[in-house]
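Q: Fold this one first, please.
A: Sequence and structure below.
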Amino acid sequence: MTNMFTDHPNSVGESYTEHMGQALSFSGPLFVAAFACLGHAFLPFLFEKTGSNIISTLHDRMVANRVKPGNLHKIAPAPAE
């Protein structure tokens, strides 16, 4: 039987507790982004880029700079020309 608590964390090269820590480290910034977007919805002159900047930063952490299992080096962005 596969273990639903460890299959996904193992697939991204993390233990259950490492994966929990990473997931929790995203929850705070996501709450801030959600409240910034909520505030912006009612007062559009506030938090004009806060939500998108937070999401962009989290995307870079999660996708663009992901360490692949079996690869000790981060994926480097393409060099600027």
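Q: Good. Now the second chain.
A: Here it is, same layout.
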Amino acid sequence: MLTVVLTIFCGCQGNKSAVPSEDKEAKALLQGIWVEEESGDVSMRIVGDSIFYTDSTSMPSYFRIVADSLVMGSGTSYAIVKQTENLFWFVNQNGDIVKFQKSNDPVDETEFVHDTPSVMTYTHQVKTDSVVMYNGERFHWYIAINPTKYKVVKRNYNDDGLEVENVYYDNIMHVSLFQGAQRLYSSDFKKQMFVKQVPENFLENAVLANMEYSRVDAEGFHFNATLCIPDEASCYVVETLIDHKGQMRMKTVEY
């Protein structure tokens, strides 16, 4: 019985020693407002284990100081070149040495007056509709783009080469189709509905940015949904076809 207890104890001790401990003294030195040495621009404010940025669209970032590196919550790390009470130099993702000095100017605190980051809404025209004729019949289609509170987080790098997170609101698209007074189709579209047409890892980081009417033919009414990574050229265009009986199907037409 004693042997078993000793074995478990030694195993636990070994696991603890394998995990690098955080340098709390180095983290304490980082507390305060930091400006870029060359330009004098205010860059960040560190409070506790969070980095706040002057950009109102960037979320505060969790960080640690481990083994002479600045480690972000995502796991991205930056080698620290020099650190004193008033200086902080590190190597960014481009291999450049970024040099900060601590600010003692109370005016710099005004750069951080925003309490919470602004969440960006990524939409085009909110409502569109039109009447089209096909085989002598009158059809009326309607599209409404409805911003939601569903957040999509995108990781970027700021001017100093630090990883930051921007937050965007996703959208829900409503499409209705009428033949005269008869409603053929009416439904909301969320980005999760396109999981068979768009790769999962792309869809997770994308927003449903737009829905547009394309044309009508013997197959039915063609609408194009656009799913994009915010502020990038990467998009998938998925055709949504509503046939003349009100049935819907999808296919990817462009990337």
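Q: Anything worth noting on the second one?
A: The chain is about 10% helix and 55% strand.
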